[in-house]
Structure formats: C-alpha cells, structure tokens
Amino acid sequence: MPRHASAARFVHEGKRYAVLVFPLGQPPLPECLTPAEREVARALLDGGSNEEIARARGTSPMTVDHQITSIFRKVGVSSRAELFARLFGVAGDPR
Description:
alpha+beta, Arc Repressor Mutant, subunit A, two-stranded antiparallel ribbon
C-alpha cells in the first residue's frame, strides 16, 4: 500500500464495503480569494469544523462562518462538498 494510505471497512444497507483512502494534496485555490479565505479554504478541505478553524486561526467561529460564505460565493458553490468537488475537479453531483 502506498505511503500514508489508509483503509476502512463498513456495512451500509446490508452491503459490505472496503475503501482505500489516499491523500490528494492541496488543489490550487482561485486567485479571487483573500489570503485569509485561502487559509480557511485549505482548512475546510482538510475537514476542519468552523470551531476548529477559528481556534487554529485565533478568530471567532462567526468570522470563519462569514469567510466561508464569501468563499462559497466567490467560487460559485453552496456547500463544502461542492467546494471540494469544484477544486479537485470531481465531475457530477458531489452528494
């Protein structure tokens, strides 16, 4: 297995699944984002919650919420899943 890959097994609706997870790295971020928005976007892509991002940046969760709203507006998405799909070039419905 490649370095840093992980695996998980789970059951969903009676079917067994196995998933391999490989780090994707960070996609390039749109130039229209401010430096603070870029930092928040990278934290979002890493799976951080608003509270975790705020704590790491020394800001309030409300500030992070406003920055996320701005990121979504500038990128043209309405959710974290859509942001991920747009930036990583995933086709189709991200849900």
